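COMPLEX REQUEST
Ligand: heme C
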Amino acid sequence: MRRLWQKTILPPPVVREAMPLEFRKLGFSMHQDFDQLALDAESMGDIRHSMTQLGNVMQKCVACHAAYRIVVER
Ligand code: HEC
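STATUS: Structure written out below.
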């Protein structure tokens, strides 16, 4: 799949290494879903399809927020 986001917003290695693997997988998968949403919106122009995709990807927002918090250790 064409990746629209990776070059511009991949976090620096020190940040990536601090993230649990499952967290990173969920983040990658969310970005892929948004890439697909953007590509489909461009090629299909079908708002109902885009809204369905948006509803599905937002489940991942909720799932991740329910499972993870950023904790700063002092
Ligand atoms: C892979 C995990 C992950 C996914 C997926 C994710 N988030 Fe988050 N998000 C976080 C974490 C971690 C924080 C920091 C929360 C904290 O520590 O309180 C955060 C914080 C936020 C905040 C700031 C909340 C605040 O209290 O300031 C917003 C807004 C937000 N996310 C929106 C979204 C939206 C919209 C999506 C989906 C399109 C999304 N996030 C998907 C992990 C994720």
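REMARKS: The two ends are 41 Å apart (CA to CA). Helices lie at 6-9, 13-18, 21-44, 47-67.
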